[in-house]
Amino acid sequence: MASREEITVCEDEVRSRYRHLEKMTDLVAVWEVALSDGVHKIEFEHGTTSGKRVVYVDGKEEIRKEWMFKLVGKETFTVGAAKTKATINIDAVSGFAYEYTLEINGKSLKKYMENRSKTTNTWILSLGGTDYRVVLEKETMDVWCNGKKMETAGEFVEDGTETHFSVGDHSCFIKAVSSGKRKEGIIHTLIVDDREIPEALE
């Protein structure tokens, strides 16, 4: 006969498995948001019978509200190192159907990402078997690498500027040169160990 301890362990296992299953059935939306410090995953659970709302950012629970009588509304929280403001809007479409939209800094995710592609440059590279994601914020000239803001040194050169930093034992710099065209503005190029890295489109 199984001991009481074994039965308890078994019950706990079933309960945790059931809880995981229960958790997944209310998952209604998943978004991936590329910010300077990395790509963040936002998951939203909405129990349309209980009104439960749970927001996860990178797998960590940020908001949990059980028993909400109002099934529509919004949840606001922050994402990433810079504490970027995010809002999930819950709207009724028809009957018991709902629509979930994500806003970042007050803009729809699509608008925010379009605007972001104008204000940042992103490069993905592999050095010594490690993958790196380098992001330049054009307005501040801040450089981020794998979620950390880098120490940089700016330098004026003959045809523009160079922003120097290092990744591990690799010397890197971002060269800023005028395109000569007003619409294009300044062209930023990442050079690592004297080779040019192509820009990534996120």
UniProtKB/TrEMBL annotation:
One of its GO terms (biological process) is apoptotic process. GO terms for cellular component: cytoplasm. Keywords: Apoptosis, Cytoplasm. It holds the Pfam family FAIM1. It comes from the Eukaryota. It is found in: Cytoplasm. The keyword rRNA processing does not apply. PANTHER family: FAS APOPTOTIC INHIBITORY MOLECULE 1, FAS APOPTOTIC INHIBITORY MOLECULE FAIM. Belongs to the FAIM1 family. Plays a role as an inducible effector molecule that mediates Fas resistance produced by surface Ig engagement in B cells. This is Fas apoptotic inhibitory molecule 1. It comes from Anseranas semipalmata (Magpie goose). The gene is Faim.
